[in-house]
Amino acid sequence: MLSSLPSKVTVIEVGPRDGLQSEPEVVATAQKVALIDDLSQAGYSHLEITSFVNPKWVPQLADATEVATLAKRRPGVVFSALVPNMRGLAAALAAPIDEVVIFASASETFSRRNTNRDIGPSLDAYAEVVQEAQRAQKRVRAYVSTVWGCPYEGAVALSNVELVTERLLSMGVYQVSLGDTIGAATPLRVQRVLEALLARFGHPQLALHFHDTRGMGMANVLAGLDMGITTYDSSLGGLGGCPYAPGASGNIATEDLLYMLGEMGIETGIDLDRVIHASQRMVQVLNRELPSRYLRARLFAKNGQCF
Amino acid sequence: MLSSLPSKVTVIEVGPRDGLQSEPEVVATAQKVALIDDLSQAGYSHLEITSFVNPKWVPQLADATEVATLAKRRPGVVFSALVPNMRGLAAALAAPIDEVVIFASASETFSRRNTNRDIGPSLDAYAEVVQEAQRAQKRVRAYVSTVWGCPYEGAVALSNVELVTERLLSMGVYQVSLGDTIGAATPLRVQRVLEALLARFGHPQLALHFHDTRGMGMANVLAGLDMGITTYDSSLGGLGGCPYAPGASGNIATEDLLYMLGEMGIETGIDLDRVIHASQRMVQVLNRELPSRYLRARLFAKNGQCF
To answer: Which of A46, A105, B221, B293 reaches 20 to 30 Å from B130, CA-CA?
Structure first.
């Protein structure tokens, strides 16, 4: 093990979208823009900055167009945004967005509750979105949620994951990010899913999107690295999490991920200290602690010995 | 990777000692006894229940003899306790303790600050403790702290770890638990240390004692499992942590560990629900949240969806 880890990894920062979307309070547009500017300077190649979903469903990100317009652009930093449908795509295409991201599900119930559609019709609708995005010269990335379990159905069949991934890639999506929506995956299950998918798809077509709900985040990343996966989604400070559970964790924290990768000699191009700077400001803005273990260790190390 | 994981693992619960020792408030003796009783019923084969150190240094565990005397014994559950010297050993031998645990350091500065002695003299003194314990038919386990870094010195030479481990095993200690005192280890560094030690010592002679300070706990356990190590120390709820850092993590949480092991088909004999029950009571006793991610997910899952 660990003898053939990738030497380079792409970390996609999803905090401004996936993180802020889960916040109970709406963050001011200026603060979102400042956050994205902080992150742009940290060395990321890819930031998922917002979501063009109906503000009725996600009021936290109702200012998507404004955020995308106001955020400063740095060469080499791709801005992506979530789009649920053709209307969202039209709004994204009218804004300075480089890539669009669609979100499918491997669980029927989750698909119905999250997109108001069964898996099949949801994918049919996305085919048109992808086509239209490509006509506008935009790459499309996709999430598959509930890969390692559904909050409504429990276990999710691997065959569903394979089918949905296959359909997304065949409609022109360049990469599918496999989401552990409920944070239930463990390394052996990560390996099993990847073994099945890597038999049919290439490594660059697959990314991993883990949640740290049960503390498995970094162990699952390690399993992914060992299987050769080189793209991971994460959120600064572990921003996001469960609005009902103070201190509970959602997305894996970028800081924890960067520490592990950096210490193992895996390059990301991202400056951990700058990410911490961004997280510290979010701690102020949100007026609460963020769940990242590494961030907490760094913030508290100043106040006293911590070992 | 992950193809040859051990099928069985021993989890040593150190919460009553390592956890409570780090608590800023002294927990009442009756509560400690109730905790140990809870844990005895959970299926552990080994509980580190207290420490016979000078109460001047660790007032939290001044009631060691009382705790050991009052805790109910269940067949098959080994009770161990920390002893710093001959005086501590005498107190431990006078109490119903099955095993004693000594603590050495791989860092000179840490050794001086933690035991008031350089590494060499500290080991010399322990040789007498081990001899005397063995004369009383007690097995001796040992910690080596600062294996992956020292809060005072930073990096610690692997040769120090090897020397200290060698000396402890040769004086009759049956197992050395390698401690990541500051929670700085990452999987690759875990692997490197184990590679060096396993070239000289057997798997059962080595255990792993990780801290989750930077969120690396479960990834490091995975690295340990992959190297064939079958004994891990953990603390219920992640009890302990840094007294200066609310919410910061110390020992890896037993719940997170049991979830990962259980989901990967690795047997421990321990009932996760009973551990959670014990942790829930400690949440009440300490009147604060505990850092275990898994515990939080379970406690909050009752209040709302959390994904």
So the answer is: B221
